[in-house]
Specification:
This protein has 16 helices and nine strands. The chain is an alpha+beta fold and 430 residues long. The chain is elongated and about 80 Å long.
Length: 430
């Protein structure tokens, strides 16, 4: 089951609270809010209407109870893994709830499988996601509505075609299972991709629908969902054999994400390393070329002044702590959506997409002031070290003013940085 994940850094509470206080009113685009509220209203109206009219036929409460129990048990067993994966997620996050949703689509009427999505998502929120900063309440509610719509659509297709209750070991039952999986996946991909686009304006396929590996993982969970449905119908005790590979698959995804994050992360500051930052910059440059005049971006090249003195005076371990503090100051001074990286040594770099000339200089100055105000207190084995009076020199370059290629922009920013240092340091140069 895919959902919108960490698309922006947001400071939010860990409990939804009153909707009027949700972070979306200050951070989300108006069109995303309208889209999310529309999906939520549609999901509620469709579910209530189907419950009242009995659309899809009678429910077997035992199937609903069994699927809830299995979904909750599996989520509890992989709670820590899911929380870590949420912290590291990109635009699209794939979780394993599709296993139980697809089984529910085959075994339950549309309204009841939508209610199954509500129960399992609510449990995940309470036990996992509300403790994750990048999973605020408004995106949880929207993702729940998208899950409900995906489940409702797939189950409704089976109900309309009279395929509910078909023996799954027959050709007609196998067709019903494949059809349900296809409808579920297509609807889910569509509603989530639209939500991500409206929230971020990202256009790349990887951002909107996930990578090939993400989709292969989703396909694997749907296959396990089909096996779970078959086991529940034919021999319920066999469903326990679905849980073990599901947990292993979930753990594999975590390990893969950890390796991917480690490959592009600077271990001393937690920022992107040179390779990770450059990959982000290449993607932004490609987007800028597609957008034309609307695709301007800028680069800040930042050098911590006289860093060698800190290492010589206090030692390299203290120097590493100072670098980490400077990284936090820079990250806190730029906009949400800007990309901060470490280029090695005491040099940092910031990518600022979609920005005008005046705003670039304002952000660069904000970074310079923030670093100058740092008072880094470090506890050592022999006492406390206090480092203050820090300063940075910053070179600014903007695309396309600095040239048509990314290398042109980086060289121009680097040249501006050297002019700032030659002019006396602790200043911004363009």
């Amino acid at each position: 089951m895919r959902a919108q994940a960490a698309v922006r850094r947001e400071a939010v509470s860990t409990w939804p609270g009153w909707p009027a206080r949700w972070a979306m009113w200050g951070s989300a685009r108006a069109r995303w809010i309208a889209y999310a509220l529309g999906c939520e209203l549609l999901a509620v109206v469709a579910t209530v209407t189907a419950l009242v009219t009995g659309f899809g036929g009678p429910v077997r409460p035992v199937w609903f109870a069994v699927l809830v129990a299995l979904g909750v048990a599996q989520a509890e067993m992989s709670r820590r893994i899911e929380r870590l994966r949420r912290w590291m997620s990109g635009q699209t996050h794939i979780n394993v709830t599709s296993v139980w949703y697809l089984a529910g689509v085959v075994l339950l009427p549309p309204a009841w499988v939508a209610l199954l999505a509500v129960v399992l998502y609510t449990h995940l929120w309470v036990r996992v996601w509300r403790q994750v900063r990048t999973r605020p309440a408004h995106r949880f509610v929207a993702s729940t509505a998208w899950a409900m719509l995906s489940c409702f659509a797939a189950s409704s297709v089976l109900a309309v075609l009279g395929l509910h209750g078909m023996p799954l070991q027959t050709a007609r039952g196998l067709f019903a299972l494949c059809l349900a999986a296809a409808v579920f996946e297509l609807v889910n991909v569509g509603v989530v991709a639209a939500g991500i686009y409206l929230y971020t304006s990202q256009r790349s396929a990887a951002d909107l629908v996930g990578t090939w590996e993400d989709n292969a993982f989703e396909l694997a969970t749907l296959c396990l969902g089909g096996l779970a449905a078959l086991a529940l119908v034919e021999q319920p005790v066999l469903v326990v054999f679905v849980v073990a590979p599901l947990l292993l698959l979930h753990r594999y995804l975590l390990l893969k994400q950890q390796l991917q994050v480690a490959a592009v992360t600077d271990e001393k500051t937690g920022l992107l390393n040179t390779a990770g930052w450059h990959e982000s910059a290449v993607r932004e440059h490609s987007r800028a070329q597609r957008r034309g005049a609307a695709g301007d971006f800028a680069v800040l090249m930042i050098d911590l002044d006289h860093f060698k003195r800190i290492n010589d005076t206090y030692g390299h371990l203290t120097g590493d702590d100072v670098l980490a503090a400077v990284a936090v100051a820079i990250s806190g001074s730029v906009r949400q959506g800007d990309t901060v990286g470490r280029f090695g040594g005491e040099e940092f770099v910031v990518l600022l997409p979609g920005i005008g000339r005046a705003d670039v200089l304002a952000i660069a100055e904000r970074v310079r002031v923030a670093v100058g105000e740092l008072n880094v207190v470090i506890s050592t084995g022999t006492g406390t070290v206090r480092v203050s009076g820090l300063s940075v020199s910053i070179g600014v370059a903007r695309h396309p003013d600095a040239g048509p290629t990314l290398d042109d922009v980086l060289r121009t920013a680097d040249a501006a940085l050297y002019r700032a240092k030659e002019a006396g340091r602790n200043r911004v140069a363009v």
